[in-house]
Each structure stands twice: as structure tokens, then as C-alpha cells.
Amino acid sequence: MSELTAYELEREANIARNRALLEELDLKDAVTQLGIPPKPKPAIRTRAKPIQPAKTVKRAREVVEAPRRQSARLKNGVVNPYETAAQKRQREEEEKKKRQIEEQERLEAEEKARLAKRPRHQELDLTTLGDKLEEPDLSSLRSSLQAVTNVPLPKRAADADAFVFDEDQKNEAEVEELRNKLQKLRIVSRAKVTADRVYSAAYHPDVTKDLVFFGDKHGQIGIWDARAPVDEVEDEGGDISADHREGGKHWRLQCHWPASSTSSISSIKFDPVDAHSLFTTSYDGTIRHFSFVSGISQEIFSSEHLITSVDLPVSGHEMWISDASGGITHLDLREPKDKACWYGLSPAKIGTVSINPTNPHFLLTASNSRVLKVWDSRKLQKLTSTTGPYQLSQYTVEDLVYSKKGKGTVRGIFQHGKSVSSAYWDPRGRSIVSTSYDDSIRLWDLDVAKYNSSPGFPSFTPFRGIKHNCQTGKWVTILRAVWNPNPDVFPHFTIGNMSYALDIYSCKGHLIARLKDSRLTATQAVTCSHPSIVERCATGNASGRCVLWAPPDV
Predict the structure, then answer these.
(1) CA torsion 492→476→121→225, rounded to 10°?
(2) CB of 383 closer than 8 Å to CB of 403
(3) How far apart (Å, rounded) are the C-alpha atoms in residues 532 and 237?
(4) In 262-340, which ranges are E strands?
(5) Residue 452: what pLDDT?
(6) How many whole angstroms separate alpha carbon 190 and alpha carbon 179?
(7) Strand partners, 422
(8) Which helix (H) or strand (E) holds 75?
(9) Which strand (E) or helix (H) includes residue 187?
(10) CA-based nearest residue to 272, from 355, 352, 369
């Protein structure tokens, strides 16, 4: 060991002297004798841990890269300075052929990359839709979809006079019965179903399982069998508790392409005839039909407008489509899609269109022009014929509305304080609920059949307004009040709450339940309910994480 320098010797002496001085003062014991309690340690703040996806081995994917550019020196190599004229000609011919081949490969790679960014209009099978799924996952998805196709599940509409009481006590009794059922709901399953923000959702009506479909920001459909047995997967670190593991099984299908924000899935609807197929609308202006039986997704409609929503009547042979250009399109599924007729109804985006279930000629539209309107589609359809025209501007529709012939085209109109983000008919076709950026939920109660032949509703003023924070901002999906589609229960709707809760209201405006959980750390913006089981709700948030609410003993 080398000898210490003078500086190091002096430093060691100072340390020893200071240590001896501290021991003589004995400050620690003096504090104890004075009875001064030690400073308490700050409490450790715990934060809800997000659900952890199961560890899966990702399949290696082939990446096609365009040829990289190289310098002439590296590409051509070293030229022999003593080559003959014949050798030079041969070398130049070989280099020319090589350049032609490389140019052809470059053009093919660029074309392939360009096509990969364009929407896909052709038929897509399950293997193509789930190109990121392993074969065992595809097999389990096929089995789950086939299991719900054995029994026809048509959409049911309630009677227009269902749950209409003259006495308030009966309404209160129905609300109390619902409250007893829905206040017991708890989180029974959680999973990251989609890769990106959830934009839309639909609950399959099968009663044997909880099968929920979520549409996300990048054109992906997340299919979640929420109560399916979870595969045993060994945790890498072994530190994920059962509370934070994913529940059920889920699969992701890329139905709309490219996988970007231009393909966001704006709405999901089941076929009202048998619920064995699914309609999805996208910001790319297309509507696709996905069959559970064949596993084929095919495009049924394409538009130059950004599609915001779609609705189908109980008959299922037609659909009405709303778009961001302020129009709605009527598409008869029994006719060629080029026969679809577009009507300009608003100077601003129409966010939703809703068909009255019991009187399907009454259409409800919610617009960014702050106006909610009820239209009579029979009057609108008189503007066109089998030979056209199929594009009717807003000015043409306005001329009809203000003409004697078009009296009754608009049955009801109500001005909101700000943009109307959504409006829907209830399963009876009697109640309307709207949400608006003026932080209000509004409710109407109309006996529509009574005014079927009159030019307008005698009164179209909401009977109830509920204050509700609808300021979602840029990163949260727009809040929409969505009716429970079950026709056998007292009408009620669900809506996300900016305080990370799920609110459930009756058609009379009573707050039935406000469901909360400490594990929720994001707004449950998108909601849907089971069409056959009352005690079932599903919600999704901006990160693609979804929640199933049900009684804890299911």
C-alpha cells in the first residue's frame, strides 16, 4: 500500500476530530431526553395501477425496405485499370442491367408502400383482418363468433306506450327497482382491448357471454369476451397481482385501413335482423359489413364525406348515414350503392342521426350548428326518384322546407346553447336525450304516433335539463348519452362522467346510479349496455382500456 500524502493525512485527522467532537456533545441523546418526538415520515401515496396486458410472444413480421442509396465507388467496386476494351464493354453492360433491376425494385417498393397507405376496398378475410394474431388466437376468435350464430337474435323495439303511467308513484317504483339493480354493479373485468383511444362501442345481445365490440382511433375493432376464462400466462417479474391482470379474452381486427387517425371508427351497429354481422363506419368515408359466419369483411358503401354515425331501422334493409359535411345519406341495402341519396341538412357537421324505432320515417339529427331537428324522411325522399338526382344540396332542402309542398318536413326544432354532440330516440320511440357542449343533458317526452299526420309537434321543448360536464377537450372522446336498448325495462341511459365515473339516468331525469371505482384513473367516455340483461354495462377510455360493470357474483 502506498504512503498517504500530507493532504490525505490532514483530511483523516479532521474527520477523526469531528467524530470525537460529535460523540462528546451527544446530541442524539439530548434530543431524546427533551421528549421531542421524531418527525413522522410522510405517508406513501398509492396510485391505482393500470391493468397489465398478458405477456405474449410477438410474431416476427417481415419488413420490406426500399433499397438504400450507395456511393458510386462502393456500388461499382474497384475498376481494373488494365482491362481491355471488350472487358470494359462487358462491365458496362452488366452495370446497366444491375441499375435497371435496382430501379425496378425501387419502384415496386415505393408502389407497395403507397398502396399500404391507401384504404382497402376489397373483401378481407379473418386472416387478413387479424394479421397480427397467432393461429391459436384466430381459432379461438372463430369459435367465439360461431358460438353466437347458433340462435337468431333480432333487434327488439318496445311498444310506444310501454312504461307510460298516469301516476308518478308508478314511475318512482320503476326507478327504485332499477336503482336496486344498477347500484350493485361493480367492475368484474378490465382489459386493454384496443391499441388506441376508444371511439365507439356495441354490446352483443347474446345472453350466454359478455361479448363487446369497441372501435378505436386507428380503424381497429377490439372484440372482448369479457368473462371468458383467462389463459394462464407466467409473469416475467411475478409482481402483477390478480387485481391488475387483464380479464377475459380479446382480439384486434384491422377493419379499416390505413391504421391512422383518418380511419377512426365512428360507430358500430349490429345487423338488426339477426345480430350475426356488424356494420362499422369510419372517418375514411367507408362502411364495412363483417359477417361472423363467413369471417369476411366487405365494403358496402363509400363516400367522399367523413362519416360520423349510422342507424338502421328494425327491418334492417336500409340505413341513414350522417357526415361531417352537414348531410345525411339514405342507403337501401337491397339496391346498388350508387343509388344512395345524399341530403344537405345543415351548414355544419351532423354528429349523429337516429331513427325512431316505432315510426322509422322520423329522423333525429344533432348538429354543430347548435340545432336538434326531427325530420320526416317521407317528405325528403320525394325530392328524388329512381333515376335521380342523388345529390341534393342544402339550398334544395331549404326550398322544400319553406314551400307549401314541404310543410311538415321538419317536425321539431330546438336551439341549444352550443354544439349538439348527440341525440337519440329511446327504444319506444317516445323519449329523446341530447348532449351539448353547453354542459347540459336534455330530455323530451313525445307521443309521436299521435302527431303522425300533423305538420309539426305542438310543442318541442325539453321537459328536463340536467347539468353535466361535457368539456372533453382534445384527448377524450365526445361524451354521448346512450339509451339502454333493452325494451323490457324502464327506459334509462348511460353517459361517462369527467370525474372517472359512469352515470345512469332514467328517461324522467332521475339519477339512478353513479358507478365509481378507485382503480379507474381515466374518463369512461364511451358506454354501451347489454340489449337483454339489465345489470350489464361496458365502458372504454382514451387509452383503449375497457371495463365491464356487472354484479360481483356473476
Answers:
(1) -60
(2) no
(3) 41
(4) 265-270, 277-282, 286-291, 297-302, 307-311, 318-323, 327-332
(5) 76
(6) 24
(7) 435
(8) helix 72-76
(9) strand 186-192
(10) 355
Determine the pLDDT at residue 31.
47
**Amino acid 118: pLDDT:** 75
Q: Which residues on neighbouring strands pair with residue 440, listed in sequence order?
A: 436, 467
Contact present, 302 and 286 (Cβ < 8 Å): yes
Burial class (CB in 10 A: 0-12, 13-18, 19+), 284: buried
Closest CA to 530 of 251, 274, 215, 201: 201
Residue 307 phi/psi, 5-degree rounding, is -85, 130
What pLDDT was estimated at residue 453?
74
Taken in order 262, 264, 266, 267, the sign of the CA dihedral is positive
Instruction: Tell whether omega for the bond before 81 is within 30 degrees of 0, i.e. cis.
Output: no
CA 305 to chain centre: 20
Half-sphere exposure for 156 (CA within 13 Å, toward CB): 14
Cell of 93: 453492360
Q: Which three cell numbers stand for residue 476?
A: 377524450
* DSSP character string of 136-176: HHHHHHHHHHHHTSSS--------TTTT--SSHHHHHHHHH
328 neighbors 365 (Cβ within 8 angstroms): yes
C-alpha cell belonging to residue 503: 352515470
Model pLDDT, residue 241: 54
Give the integer Cα–Cα distance in Å for 508 and 488.
17
- The C-alpha cell of 341 is what? 341519396
Nearest one of 551, 540, 543 to 202, comparing CA atoms? 540
Nearest to 480 by CA among 438, 422, 420, 544: 422
The residues of the chain scoring below 70 in pLDDT are 1-2, 26-77, 231-244
Q: Map grid coordinates 378507485 to a residue.
A: 518
Rg (Cα) of the chain, in Å, rounded? 32
Paired strand residues for 282: 265
CA separation (Å) from 182 to 226, 510, 554?
19, 13, 14
Q: Given strand 362-367, what is the order of strands in its sheet?
A: 350-355, 362-367, 371-376, 410-415
Which residue, 496, 526, 502, is CA-closest to 514? 502
- DSSP letters spanning 474-517: SSSPPP--EE---TTS--EEEEEETTTEEEEEETTS-EEEEE--
User: What are the b/e assignments for 173-184, b being 16+ CB within 10 Å?
Assistant: ebbeebbeebee
Residues in the chain: 554
Residues 6+ apart with CB under 8 A from 359: 160, 429, 448, 449, 452
Kindly compute the dihedral angle of the four CA atoms of residues 314, 315, 320, 321, in this order, to the nearest 10 degrees.
Answer: 80
Q: Three-class SS of residue 90?
A: helix
Cα separation, 52 vs 190, whole angstroms: 10
Contact in structure between 131 and 254 (CB atoms under 8 Å) = yes
